[in-house]
Amino acid sequence: MSFTRETHVSELAASAPATIKVFQRYGIDFCCGGHRPLTEACEAQQVDVDRLMRELEASLAEMPDERNWQGAPLQDLVMEIQHRFHQPLREELPRLAFMVDKVVRVHGHRHPEMLSGVQREFRALCDELLPHMTKEDEVLFPAIVALERGEPSPMGAWPWIEGPIEVMEDDHDRAGAALANLRALTSGYQWPADACATFQGLFYGLSVLERDMHVHIHLENNILFPRAAALAQQRT
Questions:
Q1: What does the alpha-carbon distance between residue 203 and residue 206 come to, in Å, rounded to a whole number?
Q2: Which of 35, 52, 116, 233 is 20 to 30 A from 10 in CA distance terms?
Q3: Residue 187: domain span
Q4: What is the mean pLDDT of the chain?
């Protein structure tokens, strides 16, 4: 695909998934904060726009490592999100929560400000994500699948679905803010010199969580939700 410096980050990530790894490399938000031109995103991250453009073009020439979900059935995308992200998160969040509490208990006196902040932000993230995923799995996602199948709406005209979508996007904004705070508190997940193996494992786990959450939110905010909302408008 062709793109310019004024192409929005989220648009490029949605149309060409191979570019996501480039945005991740430079810390450029392609999910919640992706609705801005490449030039603006580069300026915010102090990235040379010409260099970024070259790397994006190179990524497009490579074999994509992720399916392009723009034209895939919505049901397939829903299943991808549930199996790739929701199910693993329900296992990973309690594991990381245990590690957070252990590291705070053992190392909190040496790094009080950082670790108390990590504990606070991680708990806020868990409190956001767990009920959020339940609402999606039990209400919004089944509605999207029914919408695509042409089934009648259970709650009046299909555009009602735009309300729950907006609520989920607000949840994503709060989750994104918690992730950004965790990154700031940990200086990019750089553990201190006296960190034990659990401490190091925690920071590594949080960095992987952040990486996966960005892709997770991108697939919903930039692909699944806009396509579902557009389809709902057609079914009025």
A1: 5
A2: 233
A3: 74-234
A4: 92
Which residues, in sequence order, are bridge partners of residue 8?
37
pLDDT one-digit tens code per residue, 39-61: 999 999 999 999 999 999 998 88
**Hey, what long-range contacts does 169-175 have (CB within 8 A, 24 or more apart)?**
169/221, 169/225, 171/128, 171/132, 172/31, 172/32, 172/217, 172/220, 172/221, 173/32, 174/124, 174/128, 175/125, 175/128, 175/129, 175/132, 175/213, 175/217
Specify the amino acid at residue 157: A
Model confidence pLDDT, tens digit, residues 121-139: 999 999 999 999 999 999 9
C-alpha to C-alpha distance for 9 and 169, rounded to whole angstroms: 17
Give the distance from CA 186 to its chain's centroid: 19
CA dist., res. 185 & res. 200, Å (int): 15
- The more confident residue out of 13 and 86 is 86
Report whether 227 contacts 74 (CB < 8 A).
yes
Total domains present in the chain: 2
Q: In this structure, what are the phi and psi dihedrals at residue 154, rounded to the nearest 5 degrees?
A: -80, -10
For 112, other C-beta atoms within 10 Å of its C-beta total: 11
Model pTM?
0.82
First to last CA, the chain: 32
- 57 and 81 in a single domain? The answer is no
Structure tokens at 154: 């259970």
77-104 pLDDT, tens digit each: 999 999 999 999 999 999 999 999 999 9
For residue 66, tell me if it sits in a domain.
Answer: no
